[in-house]
What we know:
By secondary structure, the chain is an alpha/beta fold. It contains 6 helices and 5 strands. The chain has helices at residues 13-17, 30-41, 57-70, 93-109, 122-139, 151-161; strands at 2-8, 50-53, 74-76, 144-149, 179-184. Strand 2, helix 3 and strand 3 form a beta-alpha-beta unit. The termini are close together.
Amino acid sequence: MTELLLVRHGETDWNREGRYQGQTDVPLNATGLAQAEALAESQRGRPLDGVYASDLQRARQTGEILGRVTGAPVHLDRRLREIDQGAWEGQLFSHIQDAQGDLLAQRRREPLDTRPPGGETVREVMARVLPLLDEIHSRHPDGRVAIVSHGAALAVIKIHVLDLPVEAVWDHVPRNGSVEEISMEAP
């Protein structure tokens, strides 16, 4: 059984402002750096076989801090990137709600096949994240591994491992700087 630490990157200025980030490469702010240090300290002295992180700098920074504190090797992988928000990237959530509330509601109800203009669906995120999850499980069948990523990517992993309905994916987006441990059984 592989123990997975699902770690969401620390806060960015765009998180604080309520902007969709998607794959825009926004760095951690001071609060986010402090969150990353605190979550890394919470793992000090606990064995960790590896840290797999998105290559976007907010997750990379969080993963590198975790790796430095725990001594675990850090592996960057672009498959762990956040869902591509397309034309919504950089936009305030409140603006999207006002301008495209119907599409936003449809995306919540039908996450597999509804996308923001020019962005990704949850099905497409699953198609890139879940094969990596299988690779991690194969490399560490009895290990303890951190996955440092973004809200939608981590929610996809969680619903898959816990066999939860995909329609609930948006209910499982973790808070910035959070860590949740779940176990992944052999297929």
